[in-house]
Amino acid sequence: MTEIILFVLKINEMNYQEIASTMVINAWNAEIKYTNATLEKISDEQLMQEIALGRNRGIYLLGHLVAVHDLMLPLLRFDEVQHKDYRKIFIESPDKAIGNLPSADVLRKQWHEINNKLQSYIDSLPAEEWFTRHSSVSEEDFVKEPHRNRLNILLSRTAHLSNHRGQIVLLTPNT
Amino acid sequence: MTEIILFVLKINEMNYQEIASTMVINAWNAEIKYTNATLEKISDEQLMQEIALGRNRGIYLLGHLVAVHDLMLPLLRFDEVQHKDYRKIFIESPDKAIGNLPSADVLRKQWHEINNKLQSYIDSLPAEEWFTRHSSVSEEDFVKEPHRNRLNILLSRTAHLSNHRGQIVLLTPNT
After folding, report:
1. Residue-wise pLDDT tens digits, B14-67
2. Phi, psi (5° rounding) for residue A73?
3. Which of A52, A168, B28, B57 has the most CB atoms at less than 10 Å from its CB?
């Protein structure tokens, strides 16, 4: 009896965990796709421009996105950070505070590399694993706040990417 | 026996439906809060400016957000659209195509009204109801694609709001 209940429970849990993780992963995939399409319309020269007068340059925003997505690797308990110095350059420092940023060419390559790396982990994570804690919440706190899970990181980073994509798109040719 | 299984199933479903809906509702609430804080820093005069040279004006983006959030009412099966003409003005038409837009004052008021209306429905919707279909998917299709639910609308509109907030913030005074 208990075994049957546990089995049915397990099947059912999977169902809602799968629906919810599919929703968030689809939103993430779409946002990555839109951002890549936007970046393809922008030349390296245009990427050096400010998105609006006196604001961040495209190159800084691209580096910022690389840095934030890189940090998702440890946060999602997938892997180690790949570019340790990027937190300081692209998150803790504002644009124009650091003289020599990596080139547009290098950042574009790293952008695809980090997303491909994330994607391989995302695609292979079982649905129920998305509902386990991310690395910056303690096991104690997680019991009280089960929404602070790995899927929530993917959800918040999707909105973060959408926010900066809305800015980077301003560098595309004005039609 | 069947009754016990169904009861335990129900409790358990609630659990994952509640965790997932809490995650998405929290993200939505945060995005609304950030957007309101941004709008408060922008004067009505600044709202009439383009977010970048030759791009949409703040006033158009605010109207666009009112129109998109208004359309969430029928899409989420909450209520009827409040501003029927806004789809044409702020979604189907680009900025500057229509001469007389509603004033900043009117749009700010409608922005808060529509979000407050949405919020009251959002706050009172039971977790399991978030996993029922939204109004633009048929019952047949929903069986095959259960992720096309009401929660998915809230998720995609959160990213949409974040996208335009990243643009509207460019109208705040440059510090």
Report:
1. 599 999 999 999 999 999 999 999 999 999 999 999 999 999 999 999 999 999
2. -60, -55
3. A168
Closest Cα of chain A to B138: distance in Å? Answer: 17
Residue type, B36: N
In 3-state terms, what secondary structure has residue B173? coil
Query: What ipTM, to 2 d.p.?
Result: 0.93
What's at A161, amino acid-wise? L
Helix (H, G, I), strand (E, B) or coil at A57: strand
- What confidence category does residue B174 fall into, taking pLDDT thresholds of 50, 70 and 90? confident
pLDDT of res. A4: 74
Among B19, B22, B25, B164, the residue to mutate for chain A (most A Cβ within 10 A): B19
CA–CA distance from B28 to each of A114, B35, B83, B110 (Å)?
A: 27, 11, 22, 18
Enumerate domains of chain B plus CATH numbers. 2-169 (1.20.120.450)
E strands in chain B: none
The DSSP secondary-structure symbol of A133 reads B
Closest in A17, A52, A147 to B51, CB measured: A52
